[in-house]
Amino acid sequence: MNFKNSKFIVLEGIDGSGKTQACKLIAKILKKHNIKYIIVREPGGTPISEKIRKIIKHINLYEILNNKTILLLVYASRMQLIQNIIKPALKNNIWIISDRYDLSSFAYQGGGYKINNNIIQYLKNIIVNSYNPDLTIYLDVIPKNALKRIIIRGKLDKIEKNNLSFFKRIRNIYLNLISKDINSLLINANLKIDIVHQDIKNKFTKWLKKCKQDGIHG
Ligand SMILES: Nc1ncnc2c1ncn2[C@@H]1O[C@H](COP(=O)(O)OP(=O)(O)OP(=O)(O)O)[C@@H](O)[C@H]1O
Ligand SMILES: Cc1cn([C@H]2C[C@H](O)[C@@H](COP(=O)(O)O)O2)c(=O)[nH]c1=O
């Protein structure tokens, strides 16, 4: 396929929704279409951002990590990723598949940790600026189902140890924001993995076709 511009695709959802596996599926589809891509994750994706990821998810420093500090850390990580990876990739016609992005901050820091939306929006305006996704694929899963999956997967990290109501608040924010985002696809990720992946494949391929048409006629 010939495309006019590279695209920025983001996978979103609560922990255990299946984002990481879905990223690999999207990569497989892009490869089939001879599209050059990179996969990144958030927080993370650069050496500094990966260090930030460890602080947020794993390291216990015998010091309380304030919720607003986490917010600043995820945006610091995002700044590094945008400037050092996303910006150059898009410039060089390389597509980006990102396991989480800015929507996670509104869902987790806003919904989960109850930080005022205006503070998050303020940081978004400064840091994300025009680097918004062309497509967000949101994997919707009931927190009870997601928790079962991550328990089977292994040891829970600091964020995953939160209670069900924390994840219910996060899911509500996701559902609300996704319903207003015309550049998004909602996937029922409660179903069996092969059904979920078939749904992603169908919807994403349709979106890809439209991109191609827009590239030719736009
Ligand atoms: N539809 C599904 N049904 C059952 N299990 C699933 C499904 N999708 C993914 N899983 C399993 O759930 C676990 C979490 O999947 P995955 O790591 O892709 O999710 P994630 O959203 O990236 O999670 P996290 O955000 O916690 O890293 C894995 O063990 C995976 O095999
Ligand atoms: C980008 C971002 C992430 N988080 C949280 C959400 C998850 O619990 C972890 C990332 O782990 P995953 O295995 O890659 O899903 O970080 C957050 O709270 N705020 C954010 O902006």
Outline the structure in words.
The structure is a single chain. This protein has 218 residues and is an alpha/beta fold. It has one domain: Rossmann fold. The chain has helices spanning 19-32, 47-57, 67-91, 102-112, 117-127, 143-153, 164-180, 193-217; strands at residues 8-12, 37-41, 95-99, 135-140, 184-188. The protein has a five-stranded parallel sheet, sandwiched between helices. The longest helix has 25 residues, at 67-91. The radius of gyration is 17 Å and the shape is globular. The model has no long low-confidence stretch (mean pLDDT 95). Ligand LXEULUCI binds next to α2 and α4. Adenosine-5'-triphosphate binds at residues 13, 15-21, 149-150, 153, 189, 192-193, 196.
Coarse structural class? alpha/beta
Number of extended strands: 5
Kindly report the spatial arrangement of strands forming the biggest sheet: 2-3-1-4-5
- Report the total helices: 8
Bound molecules: adenosine-5'-triphosphate, ligand LXEULUCI
Name the CATH homologous superfamily.
P-loop containing nucleotide triphosphate hydrolases
Radius of gyration: 17 Å
Q: Return the string of H and E elements.
A: EHEHHEHHEHHEH
Give the % helix.
Answer: 55-70%
- Second CATH tier, the architecture: 3-Layer(aba) Sandwich
Largest sheet composition = 5 strands, parallel
- Overall pLDDT, averaged? 95
CATH topology: Rossmann fold
Distance between the termini: 15 Å
Domain count, please report it: 1
Can you identify the CATH class? Alpha Beta
**Any idea what the shape is?**
globular
Give the DSSP E fraction (strand runs of 2 or more residues). Answer: 5-15%
Organism: Buchnera aphidicola (Therioaphis trifolii)
Keywords: ATP-binding, Kinase, Nucleotide biosynthesis, Nucleotide-binding, Transferase
InterPro entries: P-loop_NTPase, Thymidylate_kin-like_dom, Thymidylate_kin_CS, Thymidylate_kinase
Protein name: Thymidylate kinase
